[in-house]
C-alpha cells in the first residue's frame, strides 16, 4: 500500500545525538534501533546520529492496512526525516532489511543522500540469475526457508524466542504475536520481492557495503555482482556474522567517514 490518499505515518525517532554531519540509521526486519548499540559510540562524537524504528517494529506505528513493501517503509522514513527539517544531505545507514530500504531511498530521493552504507544486506536474486551451482542452491534454500517461516506461524514464533535468548541482545529479534503481521509482510514484500540490484543501479551517491564473512544470510554470488557495480565498494569483514558486533561496527564507522 502506497498511501495514495493520505500521508505515511511518522516513525519513532529513538535517538538524535551528537553534532556534525548527519547520519541516519535504520535497522532490519523484526528488530529495533538497538541494532546500532556498537556503532553509535564510534560516531556520536563527530556526527549527528539519528536512529529510527522501522514501520511495524520497535515503537513505531503498526498500521493494519499496510503491505510493508520497500516503498511503504521508504515513504514512512522519508516523511519522518523531512519532519526533522535537516536541510542538507545525510549519510543513510541500513542494516539487513534496512539496507534494502536504504537502497530504495537513495534511488528514489538521490538529492537527500550523500552516501549509503549498507550493512549485512540480504541481497537476493532469482536462483536462475546466478551461474554458480552452489550459489543457485543456496539462494533457492533461502527463499524456500522464508516461505516456510511465513506459512508456519507457530514454528516461527516458538523458535524465534529461542534465537533471541541465544543472541543475548534485547530485541535483537522481535518476532512475536504483536509483530507477526509486519514481520511476514516485510519478509514477503520487502526481502523476497526486493529490487535492490536495480535500486543500486539508480543510486547516484557513493555506496559502501559491509558484511561479515560468517554472515548467515549473505549471498556471495550477489555480493560479487554488487561489487562490480559503478560507485559501490564492498568490505568483507573476517570473523563477523549478520549482527553488528564490535569488529563489524568499526568497519561501519570507517565507511561512514
Automatic annotation (TrEMBL):
The keyword Lyase applies. It is an enzyme of class 4 (lyase). GO terms for molecular function: lyase activity. SUPFAM superfamilies: alpha/beta-Hydrolases. Residues 21-152 form the AB hydrolase-1 domain. It comes from the Bacteria. Its EC number is 4.1.1.114. Pfam families: Abhydrolase_1. Keywords: Lyase. InterPro entries: AB_hydrolase_1, AB_hydrolase_fold, AB_hydrolase_sf. PANTHER family: HYDROLASE, PUTATIVE (AFU_ORTHOLOGUE AFUA_2G14860)-RELATED, MONOACYLGLYCEROL LIPASE. This is Pimeloyl-ACP methyl ester carboxylesterase. It comes from Antiquaquibacter oligotrophicus.
